Amino acid sequence: MVVHDNRPSVVVAANAASVPAVSICQQVHLVGFAYDGASRTWSLAVEPFNRVLSAHDLPEIGGDLRELYARGLIIVPSIPEFDPVPGCQPVENVKHVGPLTMLSDPGAPGGNHDTERGGIFFYRTMFDAARAEEFMDAFGDLGSRIMIATGDDDAARRLRDSSQFGQTSIRVMFDMSVVARTAKCAVTIGGHGSCLSCIQASLPSVIVLNPSPERELNAKWMERMGLGRVLRPQATHLPVIPWAEVRSVAEHLSSDSQVRSNVAHWRARLHGDGAAIAVDQIARFANL
C-alpha cells in the first residue's frame, strides 16, 4: 500500500503495481470542486495522464484528474463542516479524520481566556522590520506575551537582528501547546492548517488576508463558523492593514463571549486523534 500527499503520479504508479493507494487530500482535491466555480486546472492534464494510463493497460479517466484519487481511499485531515464533499464526488471512499496533529495540552477546556492567556500569536503575518515602530505602538504593552512565528528562518533572524521588538518572542514556529496556554487570539493569513490549529488551541483568529483562492475560502468558513474576522486592505495603493486596527479586532474577538463559545464548540469537533483515526481507516481499507 502507498500513502501519499495527493500526487496523481503516485496513484498511477500504485495502480500499475496493483498496490492500493491512499491519498491525503483537502477539499480542493475532490472531484468537482472549484474555487471559482469554473476551474480548468484539473482538466488540463487529463490527456497526458490518459496516455500513461493507456500505456500501462489501466482504465483512463474522464474530464477531471482528481478521478485518480477516487480510485483509492481519500483521507481528509479536517471535518466535513470545514471541507465539505462536493456533490459529484463519491462519498463512500472519503474519510474526514480531523487534523493529523494533536496538542499535548490544548489549554482551558472551555476555551476561556483568563489572565494567563493574555498574549497574541502571529503566524506569518509580521515580516517587515520597517513597520516595527507601528507594530510596537499597537502591541508593545504585551511585552513577552507577543509571539511572532515567521515560518521562515531568514525572516525570524531579520526581525530579531533589527532589535526593535523589545521582549517580543520571535521564532520560526512555536509549540502550539504553549500558544494554547498563553495566547488569547491569533493573527494569521488564513492558511488551511493554521486555521485548524488555531481552533485546536481555542484561539479566535484575526485573518489578515493575503488573497488567494484557498485562503479566501478558509476565511469565509472561519467567519461563517463565528471563529474570527477577516481584514482586507482598504485600498490597492495601501496594501497593508494598520496594526492598530488588528489589535482592536483581536481584543474584541478575545473578549466576545459568543466567539469564545463558538471556538469551544468547534474545538470539541477537532478533539480526536486524527492520526490514529487515519491509521484505523487505512488499516480497514487495506484489510490489515
TrEMBL record:
Database matches in Gene3D superfamilies: Glycogen Phosphorylase B (3.40.50.2000)
Name assigned to this protein: Glycosyl transferase family 28 C-terminal domain-containing protein
Species assigned in the record: Kribbella soli
